[in-house]
Hints:
Two copies of one chain form a homodimer.
Chain A: E1 7-11, H1 16-25, E2 30-35, E3 45-46, H2 52-59, E4 64-67, H3 78-99, E5 103-109, H4 115-122, H5 144-163, E6 166-172, H6 189-192, H7 197-204, H8 208-220, E7 225-230, H9 242-248, H10 259-263
Amino acid sequence: MADRRPLVTITGASGLIGGILADRFAASYRLRLLDRAPLPGRLGQTVDLEDLPGLERAVAGADAIVHLAAATSVAAAWPEVLGSNVVGTYHVLEAARMAGVPRVVFASSNHVVGMYERDWASAAERPRSPTPLDHLAPPRPDSLYGVSKGFGELLCRYYAEAHDLRVVCLRIGTVLRSNDPRDPAPPGFDAWAAMPWEVRIRGTWLSHRDCAELFRCALEADVRFEVAYGVSDVPHRFWDLEHARRTLGYVARDRWPDETLALDASSPR
Amino acid sequence: MADRRPLVTITGASGLIGGILADRFAASYRLRLLDRAPLPGRLGQTVDLEDLPGLERAVAGADAIVHLAAATSVAAAWPEVLGSNVVGTYHVLEAARMAGVPRVVFASSNHVVGMYERDWASAAERPRSPTPLDHLAPPRPDSLYGVSKGFGELLCRYYAEAHDLRVVCLRIGTVLRSNDPRDPAPPGFDAWAAMPWEVRIRGTWLSHRDCAELFRCALEADVRFEVAYGVSDVPHRFWDLEHARRTLGYVARDRWPDETLALDASSPR
């Protein structure tokens, strides 16, 4: 009998989130994993975001694209941001349109609104606004990376409304390779962060299981276009989760592992 | 005695708005007119938006940049939008930052929110929303051109907040070469418009005098970053002018020339 599970194509499948989705989606979806480099230990196709005809062939027949491939560093310089995030995202949406793929989930970023955090930090406020930052807050990118993800959201909205795609943009929280939010800051964090790691991660952690659930909800939701944040059940959340719950059905299941430790970040481990 | 008038550099000075500003700013500012092609009948410099070092030299010493150079057609294809509007605007802001130019006025566009118009048109509503569309309405671009102008606004905000520039983004109404809004639609209008020309122009017309005043206000305003619409005193405005008045001090002075004619667009001229 034919396999009737939806065919989901994942770009940037070799990355951290790509690996999480490849593992956890294997039962629910047929997967076509794309990356610019061969995927060690997985069946996949190599295709570069610069190659629009190649992308169109690679996404043909898919029911949805999860677009993860990007320059993912907040410190990424303009040439990389331009090529991977601006041109690359255009090519993915254009390939979807040309190939008739009806749905795209775009890995956006909280760095589209990262400048709000700097205000909170410089005002010596706790990193929780009285009202969490929601999808309607005017974008205030904190980096060229954040600008490029904001561009991707604009482009997604245009394709959704002009070309009849369904698109969900996810402003993803902090996903850690170890999945343990008590780990020390990853390299490079201090270069852009406005708050100490131990403070910020208590607002932004997204577990592997919740990450996969967030993307699953985005793939299944009956919406034309949405932007939503995704974090786990963290003690000091400062992004809105209500919109993700209402429009996508996303509910965080993983709780902060050790509240006592988390509340006193200065205590020894 | 030294000329103490501020030095304003204008990119895309050969265009319609460039010519309007060059004529009307000559008394208040020292002007440095830039364009990729030589400016007939005017003193100017040729510089291409692709040429970042050339741009940095061309804006050095200026008190402000008015950035008009762009692919200005709503129907512009991706390669042109990418080169002129995405990369070009990055180069202008980066040149401003490197050269220490403290202020930029960016010619944005109502096409950043153009998809709202299509809703009104398809709902057979009059082209006036009960509340005019303001600067806080979530962007809904109607074209790749609109996406690129929304990108420019995001980039401007990043530069304003991260690099201490003052930036005003103007969502400019419809400026006509003849300056007469009773003229027929310009070529290409029907390709994208959701409303008949005679209906839309009654909401969007911006006279030459008001256009120059809008840019003058943006150059003088004591603001870090703003987005504002600009139209003349039109009979069926559907974009907010209150924010431009409050933050920039802009007040439209030119009124629709013939209200009777305008209210019945089907009547013979």
